[in-house]
Amino acid sequence: MAFDGVFLYKTANEIGEALNSHIDKIYMPSRDELVLLLRKKGFAKRLLISVKPGYSRIHFTENRYENPAAPPNFCMLLRKYLSSARLTAITQPGFERIIELHFTSFNELGDCVNLRLICELIGNRANVILVNGEGKITDSLRHSDVETAARLILPGALYEYPARQERQNLLSCNISEVCKKLALSSDNLPKALLCEFDGFSPLVCREIEFKAGRLLSSGAADDSESALNTALSDLKSLISGKSEPCIVYGDDGAPLEFSYTNIEQYGGYKKQRFDSISALLDAFYGERDNALRINAAARDIVRLITNLKSRTEKKLALRLTELKNCENRDTLRIYGELLKANLHNIPNGASQALVENYYDENLSKIKIPLDPALSPAKNAEKYFKEYKKTYTAEQTLTALTENDRAELIYFESVLDSISRCATLSELEEIRRELGDAGYIKSLKPPKKARPVQNNFKEYRSLEGYRILVGKNNIQNDLITTKLASKGDLWFHVKNIPGSHVVVFSGGNEVSDETVMFAATLAAGNSKAAKSSQVPVDYTVIKNVKKPSGAKPGMVIYTSNKTVFVNPAKDS
Predict the structure, then answer these.
(1) What's the pLDDT tens digit per position in 419-452?
(2) Fewest CB within 10 A of the end CB: N or C in the chain?
(3) What is the pLDDT of residues 384-422, one digit of tens each?
(4) Which domain CATH number covers 9?
(5) How many C-alpha atoms does 476 have within 13 Å on its Cβ side?
(6) Burial class (CB in 10 A: 0-12, 13-18, 19+), 384
(7) Are both 404 and 468 inside the same structural domain?
(8) Centroid of chain to Cα 527
């Protein structure tokens, strides 16, 4: 990936169309992301600033980002100082990965003030810093450590640029002299270019070498120095002129590299061109960002459910062992009965009794261990007490093991739902579900909490029937027990955690095509989404029951049919 200094330069030029716009709204979807809604006559765009390690960037975005109910402190500070501020300039020191947004605003006294929002997009040290007109830091997203930091990033400190290495700027240097210098370098060409030029990434350096080599091999250049001169001159023209945003995709179809110039070094790999830098970055980072955001938000829930699942598995194993020990309870009762029938034949202080077992059709002799300290009658009473104890234990353990198994199935269903979450609101539904079930502490909703919306996945069959797919256990219960009528068709993967799918047919007979389509949706929205020939059960809603006290999403059903399908890919 090549979000280098030159790429930022091209991005800054693109963002320049927002000059003279004002900030309408400020959001922080996460602690590492900032979104500014910029408006002016005939212009309204969202500017995304991300300082997430490995994802640092700035660009216009078309993606919609969910915002937390309570904004972070840095977001509130920016709203205080920058609300309605006007963007007057965008600057970049050389080809450094630093971009400065210059604003004018009015303070509490009505005086016009100048402010800079400095975005340092430098690896793991990426930061967003608000600086006043005197060059002092008002605040920053990340503060520096007073004792160990090379420079001070704290409120009230004078802002200083990070230390930089002196390198050539391709737009202002003498390319011919640089080519002669590089020809004498002992380093390979990409490394020499990286050390020589400001704002170059390894990808761009390799691309220059590739294009120079192609010029030389085709006869378009007389020697390597001339070929390099031409390649650098072409790149200089591209930097000064219109970009050629490009993404290269790997063999697996995942985005591999991007740049402001056409990438040719990867040969036959699939490439995609874009009309703008922002569109490229939206395409490259959009899905990754969302998945990263969901994973970060879900981490604590996944850890909790995984721990609960592990604990329940251990409890179940212990209870099954205890339950197995209860299998000999009938032997205890028989011992007690035989001792009771033979009390007159057993002397006090005996350690065992040899009696005739009248429960055996052959009336064989049986040895019964005794406690010499107890009388024969007390030994018989002891065996009866142990029998009663194991009988009660068996009943209790049977109920507990059934509950453990139900909990394990429920935990699997929650983990499956989390794995398919596409938005933070879907994750919040699962969090509320766990809170209602008592697995986590229910948080008080914020004063301005948004109303809960059940955004089911919705489809239409070829016959026009509405098909709903639950995204979590709460939605599954709602679809199956509240929204569906008795004649509607219900689908679920067989013995695997997954979504409830309902075809709202109103009791009408549906075609085989609709049955197979709904079944593929059920398979695609389950833990078996990456399998093939998945068994899916289906029946009418009247045959689906939710037992009293059952976990969310847990039902029983009868009179079902089963089809085998490949999961829907776009489910």
Answers:
(1) 888 777 888 888 888 888 888 876 555 555 444 4
(2) N
(3) 998 888 888 888 888 899 999 999 999 999 999 998 887
(4) 2.30.310.10
(5) 27
(6) middle
(7) no
(8) 16
